[in-house]
Write a structure and sequence with these properties.
By secondary structure, this protein is an all-alpha fold. The protein is built from four helices and no strands.
């Protein structure tokens, strides 16, 4: 799955939109808030990874050019 899809944003998203989407998704899928969801930890890790790449201009450029 693509990082943009994970965060629910478009590839044209601004850094502010990326940060906002990350915060919403992180709160929604944080393992501490989803104790009955065995997949919550994995979802949260993917959300964090997507944010880490897309919030860094250098990594985002590489991701946009070459993919994951």
């Amino acid at each position: 799955m693509e990082y943009y899809d994970i965060l629910g944003i478009q590839p044209t998203a601004t850094s502010i939109e990326i940060k906002k989407a990350y915060r919403i998704m992180a709160l929604k899928y944080h393992p501490d808030k989803n104790l009955n969801d065995p997949d919550a930890d994995e979802k949260f890790k993917k959300i964090s990874e997507a944010y880490q790449v897309l919030s860094n201009p250098t990594l985002r450029t590489k991701y946009d050019k070459y993919g994951k």
